[in-house]
Design a protein that fits this description.
2 copies of one chain form a homodimer.
Chain A lengths: L4 H16 L7 H8 L3 H13 L3 E4 L5 E4 L8 H7 L27 H17 L2 H6 L7
The structure holds a DNA duplex.
Chain lengths: 141, 141
DNA sequence: TATAAACCTGACTAAAATAGTCAAGTATAT
DNA sequence: ATATACTTGACTATTTTAGTCAGGTTTATA
């Protein structure tokens, strides 16, 4: 059970962006250098973030990305959703909800996995990008 | 972020065991049939569970496995730990705790991942095998 | 208006993890 | 005796991950 780099990088990059986007757009190159994430990989990630309207792009020299919403309105859920970082506990979801293929003993633990998924997703629902940067605002230059 | 089959199967198999081990040891073959898990794979899993003293084996005809502790004392944490299902959110843990390699901007999100790990692990600490089977005891034959 | 910075896209791939299978045993109740 | 069931270790196909690579397009500014 682990978080993938894609989800982790997305949050790291947006946290970085949230701290530095006050004046100008932030270039991926800067984020790449500060966070130690490959530029090419960042481009993939930001392409998805843009499609989900979490960030906005500014092309050309001095271009980059800016947040498309207030940092308080961007939940971790939204970020993970954008980059396809899903919380999956069990496959049998798509089948009939009760009994999982009719074998009633099979999914003794079905409710457990549901609870676990909810438990984790609640965490992501409660945290916003703002929650991350406010704690680090004293580091701001 | 997903739960692996190994962890999931371990819990499913133990829940099955907890329901049926009142009288006799439960054979892996029975669990395999009821839960739809490959026998060979179950053997790998139970080998680990036995080493961690979560179950006890009984050899020979009519043999099988029994729980080695009261179901209330077996937490999901213990199960996942036994089969190496770990909750991992971030790699930089092993390095220096502050700043992650000295780059102070890098781990803006470090605390977040710690919180997430704790959040998930708390869930596993709170749930015991008994919690699973008590909810399903009315299904018992 | 040339040009370099920076965004944009899709295809490709090496490495790691996963989810098993397979083979060859050993122990013991009946 | 012997069938049942545990025991162990090696092996492997598939999938996922975590990127790289190549080739663009856009636009501020000198």
């Amino acid at each position: 059970m682990k978080l993938t780099s894609k989800g982790r990088y997305a949050v790291m990059a947006l946290a970085d962006l949230a701290r530095f986007d006050n004046v100008n757009p932030v270039s991926l190159r800067d984020i790449s250098l500060r966070q130690g994430i490959s530029l090419d990989y960042l481009e993939q990630i930001f392409s998805k973030l843009r499609k989900k309207e979490i960030v906005q792009s500014v092309r050309g020299i001095q271009g980059g990305y800016v947040l498309n919403k207030n940092a308080k309105e961007i939940k971790l859920t939204n970020i993970f959703d954008a980059v396809d970082e899903k919380v999956k506990t069990v496959q049998c979801k798509k089948e009939s909800k009760k009994g999982c293929n009719g074998k009633s003993t099979k999914c003794l633990t079905h409710n457990l996995w549901d609870e676990l998924e909810n438990h984790i997703n609640n965490f992501f629902e409660e945290k916003s990008l703002y929650d991350l940067v406010k704690d680090n605002s004293e580091r701001r230059i």
